[in-house]
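pasting for the record
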Amino acid sequence: MEKEVVIKASNVKKKFGDRAILNGISLEIYRGETFVIMGGSGCGKSTFLRHVIGALKPDSGSIHLLGKDISKLNEDDLDKVKKRIGMCFQSSALFDSMTVGENVALALKEHTKLDKSVIDIVVKMKLEMVGLRGFEDLMPSQLSGGMRKRVGLARAIAMDPEIVFYDEPTAGLDPIVAGVIDKLIIDLSKKLAITSVVVTHDMKSVFSIADRVAMLYEGKVLEVGTPAEIKASKNAMVQQFVNGSPDGPIRFFQQKDDYIEQLLK
């Protein structure tokens, strides 16, 4: 049975000024899989993610998301596609002036006509899925970093999306809490039958959650494969990154490169 492609990038290129951030990325991501995009700072992975969710448009090439060429859609049609996806941000991006429940309910209030009583039930269900039922009335400032990540995840799945995108979901977390987040990603992907796209440089997470992995380097796809194939790669750059070795063909990024990457986050 042929796999359904839900995301297809074809020769995507993007420049900011004279600097090429994406140098012709082509990838296919299948329905139901957990696809990890990894690479060092400045490799283009966060910029590519922003293209896939429609926040940026490529200079050339195309991105098809759920069958639509999103670079050619008008704002209304793009919004319709965006309602079918969820986004879990690196910083959680919770509104500090809202309660946990209000944060999770935000998209439901803005994009549906559900009664408040129904929305409250949905919020409780989504929080229970991430192990936070009963936390509805707390403020984000009362939560730990790991809890904030889980609230962000509950909000990302509030609209029952077909695809969820994760930007560095375990960044800044201790190993145990990071493991909890990894397990949640796996469990939710299976229980909700969603496609998960994870951007990370956390090697433990990569090999814990991925069905397939793509490594980016200098705005290009260096290699794509299963975790086992990536571990066994003959590519010296892949091996250097996977093993975290300071010695190898990958150059150290200059300060200005890291600064540009931060600006794009």
